[in-house]
Amino acid sequence: MQTFARDPALYSDYLKLIYDVFTDPALRRSELTTRLELVYLHGCRAKDPVLRGQFIDLFDESLPKGLSPRLQFVLGSSSWEQIPDQYWIPQALDLLLGSVNSDQALVPGFEGKVQTPTPFSRAVGDSKVQSLLRPTRVLLHLDPDATHSLWISCFKAIWSTLSRKEQQDVSRSMISLLSKDYHIRQIDTRVNIIQSFLAGINACTPPLSLPPYLVKYLGKTFNAWHIALEILQTSLESFREEENARDNTYDALAELYAELSEDDMFYGLWRRRCLFNETNMAISFEQAGMYVQAQILYESAQVKARTGAIAFNESEYCLWEDHWILAAQKLQQWDILMEFARQEDNPDLLLECAWRNSDWSADRESIERTLSNLAEVPTPRRRIFDSFTALLRSHINGTERTEFVRMTDETMQLALRKWASLPPVVSMAHVPLLQHFQQVVELHEASVLFATLQKTNTQNLEQRSADLKNVLTAWRERLPNLWDDISIWSDLVAWRQHVFQQINNAYLPLIPSNAANANAQATSNNTAGYRGYHETAWIINRFAHVARKHNLQEVCHTSLAKIYTLPNIEISEAFLKLREQARCHYQTGTELHAGLEVINNTNLMYFSPPQKAEFYTLKGMFIARLGDNDSANAAFGQAVQMDLGLPKAWAEWGRYNDRLFRDNPNDTPLAGNAVSCYFQAAGLYKSAKTRPLLIRILWLLSNDDPNGVIGRAFEAYKGDLAIWYWITLIPQLLQSLTYRETLHARTLLIQLAKNHPQALFFHLRTLREDLVPLRRKYMAEQQAQAQNQANPGGGADGATQVVDTSGSSQATTGQPGAQRPAVGTPFQRGIRQPWENVDEIVSILKTAFPLLALTLETMVDQFAQRFKATQEEELVRYFNALLMEALQQHGMRVTNPKDDGSIPPACLNNATRFAESALQLETRAIFKADVIEPKPSLREYIRKLQKWRDKYEKILEARPRLQPLDVLSHWLVEFQHSKFDDVEVPGQYLQHKDNAATFVRISRFSSQYELCPGQGYSYRRITILGHDGTKHSFAVQLPATRNCRREEKLHQLFRIFNSVLVRKKETRKRILSFHLPAAVPLNTTLRLLENDSSVVGLQDIYDHHLREMGISKEDPVIMHAEKFKSILDQTKPPTKHEFMNLRLELFEIVSTKMVPNNIVSNYMSRSMVNANALWLLRKQFTTQMAAVTFMSYIMSCITRTPGRYHISRSTGMIYMSDFVPGYIFTTNAQASPMLGTNEAVPFRFTPNLQHFIGPIGIEGLMTAGIMAIGRTLTEPEFDLDQYLGLFMRDEVINWYQTQGKSMPSEQNLRGMVGTIVEQIVKKAEILSCRMEREAMTNAQNGVQATNAVQSVVQLISTASNPQLLSRMSEQWLPWL
User: Fold this and answer.
1) How far apart are CA 1034 and CA 65, in angstroms?
2) What's the whole-number mean pLDDT along residues 149-173?
3) How far apart are CA 501 and CA 498, in angstroms?
4) CB within 8 A of 604, min separation 6: which ones?
5) What residues does 1235 pair with on adjacent strands?
6) In this structure, are strands 1079-1083 and 1086-1090 parallel, antiparallel, or unpaired?
7) Minimal CA–CA distance to 729: which of 711, 713, 749, 715?
8) What local confidence, expressed as pLDDT, does residue 2 receive?
9) Is residue 267 pLDDT above 90, yes or no?
10) Angstrom distances, CA of residue 155 to CA of 161, 208, 359, 1060, 1167
11) 1133 preceded by cis ω (within 30°)?
12) Distance (Å, rounded) from C-alpha 984 to C-alpha 991?
């Protein structure tokens, strides 16, 4: 066969001969045809389509025509064993498609549906199924990916047509087929048989049951990981009553999660399946990175099990043992583990301990014996050890390194093969392999170092040491990420210490004996000989730093103690060691005296001034935390005197004064000192560390007293203002033009206008338009005063509180002098008003950049004038508003026994006003005759509004989604020719970058825009093409929501939080962040929102489901209300308990009949191309739900309806629109704003969201994500409350304006802001599970411990409680 295959012509003739043999009636069913069966199957895969078709047709004729027998043949035939290395799905699918009746019409009755026949319609009507089927069967053999997708669709459809008995027969045949050994020949194929079969099985409904261990084996072996996970997770629902099958499924899932390094999912699975509370607690602490507490709990559980205090099963006890070892490894307890490994005769663990603790050159023989005791299965890790021992052997013996090269090559091949067996998207499972690749690279570099060491002698010591510097410098730069697992760092440190030990062994004997024993000066002259010790000290310091960042303080102290054992280290390393030790004591919080003692006992004589200044800074921090303010102030003063250019010293001194001012709000000189220090630090940092300082500066300036003490600190500073970093606070600076810090804000804004015009332009012009009503009011008052000059008592007086409809709180007043008073004071003549400052800044910007300003202004005008909604879109919006009002009335009146069902006069009046103002004359008459004049019942009124709304929605849906942009604006289409200056893509200044060097400029606008339907409105999506070829999509929101300015300010706050999440281990390793798309205001009612075509709203998914069911969007809400009214006993009012039970019953009815809990799951499954994409989407969706839940809970967001949740199908990111805090409604005139909500659930977590995430995802990913965010943002060094004040001040002012209340005094305003900040911090601490962590830390042997995430679990349980969800409003759609 191989000989024939080399010659295509000969091979073709050979296959024709085989075909003739099988078509000869005399030879049919003879021994010859039996022996040629393998060759016949090769004929079915021939490249010649004609010849291949002949073989398949003959094969097809030999089989019965029925679908079920053919499927049984495909699954049960032994013929496939003849071609085990071939992807034979095309042949199998071809045989199944052969059962279709190809003589049927392709579209039955098509001609009767066409009123005017055309040649095309006649051609379609005459077409048979064969005209489509035959080309499809030919194309099956050309593209494996397309065949794979078609097999999934066909197998799903075939399965749904089979009877229950036939499904059982197919299941048995499928299990038998998947268990065949010959499939192993396809293990390296990109698209293989097993992947296709498992994907088809995963698509079946009802599910096709497979043994869990078979699915696990197939998923691991044939690179079908995520398909296997989907099958196993789905099967958990069907195995609820079968305990043994459920446990087997859990075991299989746990092994797959562990193989894929999906740690959170592994922990979530065990938290759901564990039988003992000790396991649950230990896992929760281990998942949070609290390994000390986890180890205590694991040990306690094993002790209880051994003493018989608790009954246990084997799998759970094994978990305790394995994870106790894992916790000990994280805590670097290698001595204990080595003893344990010897007792348990565990060579793998013993080798890992020897890697950290032993000298491999001295103990090489014992280590080689341990290596020989390992299992025979080769792994990359074992080959790393083998390679290093081979390298040491050749280095010590001075032999060739042939064996070393062979071992490293084998290591690389094993790692590459393992890489190829993992999912195609790089994930945490690939990280150990990346570590192996780096290890191989460093092994080769180490071989070069060892060769250099062999050539080193006393004469060339300096030269050879310098030669090593390049490699060792590269090693310093080639480090894991800060958030990578501590085991990766530990392994790297151990490996490099082995190399450094060989350097020491080679260099120390070469150092002259007199120098080795001389004083420090002589030793410093021979640093080349101590190169190994210097590198060891550096890597130990770095490892200790990482351990501290991972909250492993004991590991940090233990590592730093090793530096004392080194005979020679550099001064810089000694400094780093002492600094890290002091910081570790400071971070612990209970070891302040020990840390202060370390600093006080340090001899600073050998350190440089910056290093001395840092020690004094640390000393001040310790003393301040101990409460000795005078000594702390002196220490900070010494620090800045020692080095005026150390930003850390200035920043900490500023925080010290800031905290004192917070405790003594009337001592404004403290705030002035803090501002001065913050400015000095900001000017020196010039990095991301500057932004938090500027936030505090602006907040402190807003707390100035009438004497302007704090303001004078601003004026006295003459250094670098770090203008670039003020860009982050542009909205607050513009807002400050109406507050007492107006002069300082004006100074900064003028600098921004001169240096960064594009960052300021859009916000500035929006504020200018926001101030127009205020200016008009002021001018009217001025005119009134001029007319009443003869009557001094008749002038206008009183407060001029203004409510800004855009959501921006605006003040109106000023006072003579440097400061502007609080919001709410009267206009005063001769005082510079806010709009005058704005006009001045606008003038400066346009004078400095006239062409740029003209281009930007023209662009905004084009959006404002050309992107307005059409009449049909406006009508749909009005109809939805009327419909919502009617539904609210309908829902409110169901409990009224006297309700006659008539339409409320308010609804009728609104409909009349709408008809008079919005509808054209002819349409108005029809609408009135249909809706208004008959005076229908409320239910009939709703039905008619639905009909009118649906009519216009169909008009909108009939429009092409993509339309040419030149229909709206020629100027935008020709932007590249019309612009006068380069314009940057909007929204880039919202990113926290250190400069604009990487910002993208607009090259042109895409020639097409997209029409996008929204919830009750439509908008347009434009695409901007950057100069670097990138595409940037924006939704043009016109009109923008009324709270958009408030929303944008909260987005600023959470972007600052993102900059913290990205630096912390627990949040960074989970890729946790708040998704905040760029929103750029163009004017009061217009803004651009970053948005692409993959974004879909939760409400859109709901509407799509109802359309598929053929019912209207409002039908579930209406059915809920009408059922409630029909069941309710009108003669006897229900008790509260009966009322709640009735709502729960109706909630379950709606969920069962109309809105099942798998709507989101089904929609996302259909949207994803394969199981890999679905897994990644679900995982990102779950982490985003954790972030969204955190946001909505701490800010008390209300009315989290589905229309406000927007999901990106390409990334899984979730964006919440209308994100503003909620306030508890109070009627007391003296009441102050309080964050809160009257809703029954703390946040939205409805059945569909629960089903899509899954119970394991909820327990594993979501709870851990919420806790990780909470811990990161409530850590003492972050000072969450210090960031909130500036943003919550605007919220409080906005609340007073919207409530129509008079503004409080400055002191009361600060108190209210402080109260709200305290509320937010307390909620964040609840989500951080602070109480649970402190309880475990203070417990003795874990006796009083609780689950580490208990608070989060309780909140999620509350949010998902059907009883509480049923109490939510029907418009909230609690069943979705």
Assistant:
1) 55
2) 89
3) 5
4) 611, 612, 615
5) 1223
6) antiparallel
7) 749
8) 53
9) yes
10) 10, 11, 60, 49, 19
11) no
12) 13
